[in-house]
Amino acid sequence: MPLRPRTPHSPRALAVTLAWLRVCAVIGQLVTVLAVAHLLMLPIAEAPLLAGIAALAAFDVFVWWRLRQPWPVGETEVVVHLAVDTGVLCYLLYLTGGATNPFVSLYIVPIALAAMTLSPRHLAASVGIACLGYFVVLLWHEPLPDIASHAMHGAIDPTTRDFNLHVLGMAVNFAISAVLLGFFIWRLARDLRRRETLAQRERERALRDEGILAIATQAAGAAHELNTPLSTIRTLVGELRREHPTDTPLGEDLALLAGQADRCRDILRELVQVGSAQLTEQAQAQTLSDFVADCAERFRLLRPAITLDITLADVAHPAPLRIVPALRHAILNLLNNAADASALTASTKVEFAARAGDTDIVIEVRDYGPGLPQFVREAAGLRFVSAKRDGLGLGLALTNATIERLHGSVHADSAPSGGTVTRLTLPLSALRALPQ
After folding, report:
1. What is the C-alpha separation between 101 and 79, in angstroms, rounded?
2. Does the model's pTM come out above 0.70?
3. DSSP 158-210
4. In 3D, which of 378, 399, 375, 397 has the Cα closest to residue 387?
5. Which of 6, 160, 171, 262 could form a disulfide with 12 if both were Cys (CB 3.0 to 4.6 A apart)?
């Protein structure tokens, strides 16, 4: 069972970090005790030291089990973990010289870790525990064995040997402290950079959404204003068709004009319906195949000259999906943009594919145009940018806003044989079927 997700500076994250450091501490302490006892041949309390290390290892096993439980990790519990670590360190230092041991500065490590996560009250408790542990081993400890009696043939001055051993211990301690300090400062800086990046993206999304809201307000007013001249156009077209019933070329043009006027009227009505559906969170239950067919039919009415190739995977999700109107418009935006891109290379072909997996639905739209510029891909729909000369950049921004609300993602990549493939990935959890 995996560990539960955590934020970079949560108590759970600190508990996990301490657990990993405990693993490193057990290995390092075990190697040190065995090296001093069997390589340097110093008469240290090997069995009690190994017992303390075993106790720390057992506690770490318990902590790993605890972290896999659904209970939340609080700051008080983390302080208890730090207290246990400090207590075991006190025990080991008591048996190996106390404050004269060069590894006594490891008391600083829990304080440095606690300062990144805990509140001032719990941080003060951690500092107090570390200071108490230091003063305990300062006053009460077993002295380190005198290695003068172990100097080989008396060739090396005992005082020099003691000093050199202490300096060697200080060097090892410095290396450990430097590695820990460098690692945690690097991780802290990395988390800060990530937060700055996320904050920047959130600011850009807010600006984009404000722009979309302003455009939506203007669109509502424009829809109201356009309804009157559109009705006039439809009336005049009807009168012209009645006045010239035998003029075949003119009749064909008027029929086309009447069809386009009807299409404009339907778009305005659909605009109002979509707004109402968004406000009431209305959605339609459709299977993936029905949704793809619906989008294709609407697109063919909008762009009859475009050849639309549809690929629907055999593993397509058979159950009904919750299709909101905004998702349908996002797909139509992509198809329309693809048609415009293909037209730039005198192509009339657009590919439309959909497939469903166990957790996601993937929809791909491929054009045969010159490719999407890098600056448009980098914008990722956060700003109103367009690769078209007269484009407003609304299509990509609106599509991204819709897909983000459904907890999905949009990626545009260059196709191997030319053109661009825009891939929408939507989690099935966001497209649950409507209750029957």
Report:
1. 25
2. no
3. HHHHHHHHHHHHHHHHHHHHHHHHHHHHHHHHHHHHHHHHHHHHHHHHHHHHH
4. 375
5. 6
DSSP at 434: P
Spatial separation of the C-alpha atoms in residues 213 and 9, rounded to whole Å:
35
Provide the b/e sequence for 228-267 (b: ≥16 CB within 10 Å): eebeebbeebeebbeeeeeeeeeeeebeebbeebeeebee
Residue 76 tokens, joined: 């008080």
Query: Is the Cβ–Cβ distance between 285 and 433 less than 8 Å?
Result: yes
**Looking at the DSSP assignment, which residues form a beta bridge with residue 355?**
362
Q: Which two tokens stand for residue 14?
A: 């600190």
Distance of CA 79 to the CA centre of its chain: 29
Give the closest residue to 394 by CA, choosing from 408, 382, 409, 410.
Answer: 382
Cα(324)–Cα(331) distance, integer angstroms? 12
Cβ(78)–Cβ(118) below 8 Å:
yes
